[in-house]
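Entry 14. Ran structure prediction on the chain below.
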Amino acid sequence: MIYLDYQATTPLAPEAREVMLPWLSDHGFANPHSPHRPGRAAAAAVEVAREQVAGLFPPGGRVIFTSGATEALNLAILGSGGLGKAAGRLAVSAIEHAAVLDTARFADPDCAILPVNAAGLVDPQAPIPQGTNLVAVMQVNNEIGTIQPIEELADAAHTAGALFLCDAVQGAGKLAPPANADMIAISAHKLHGPKGIGALWLRDGIVLAPQIHGGGQEQGLRSGTLSPALCAGFGAASALCKSLRETDAQHVAMLWTKARALFADWTLNGDSEARWHGNLNLRRDGLDSARLMSDCSRLAFSAGSACASGSGRPSHVLRALGLSDRDARSAIRLGFGRYTGEAELEEAAAAIIAAAKAQGVC
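Output, structure tokens:
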């Protein structure tokens, strides 16, 4: 199996796995919220991990561990304003992940949608409705890889009197964090850490209302027992991303150049420059992407967002770019990164192109 679905999840780094194992053994299972010696040791491991994860964020804030980015985004959106008319308005980009779009619409059924252009970018000059108290725009889109002008968008939100939330799931560990965001959400399994843990970064002075009650753990914002193993793995993966950021980027750039040459006749979705180059979203006129995936069963890639796969619905991201439903259904997404080999990419491209030719579209 050749794995090319890095936007859905990334392989667990061996270094993260090794750090986790002691906390799954007979000597490391203690509750980190217990006052006895094993509990204090577990709590210390959690705090080491917190510092490592904090290294992915700007200075001047704090890290709240959550079960993942979806919970972190819910906490940010609902905790910063609550529900109902008194909460004020929300504004989110048209290509946000469902974790933002669905939560924003739940909190504010009339939330404003900030459009994108044909390249998948939000205009920082786009008007923000009066009364908006929170603007949310993701750093890197999970489907097409576009990198938004986050710092300009955050400035625009602040000028409008709103807080700015950034879903940095796809950019964390790869790009510099948005320096002027008020809240940033990330997920461990998108940066070679374990599934089941994420984090919300809060700028100093930001006050949220907890959304999970029942114990007051995590600085009173997120009740529930933390897993030292998951925290340790998240921390190790974060530290590794920080130390390997330059070499990871060089490797991805090499793979991107190779992939663009292999798929030279395919149409790229999203901006070719303002994007993370580990995300290659392509389309081919007349292609049946669902059939293509079935015919390439030895490859793991996506016909769209992994969260919407199997829904039968065209990608809302591709539709926001102005593509027709037919064009959206002819798109595939290849995601690669640290552990992808050049030969693997070449083999996968050959299989995909051969399967497309069998459909008569190449």
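Residues 228-262 form the longest helix (35 residues). Will compare against last week's run tomorrow.
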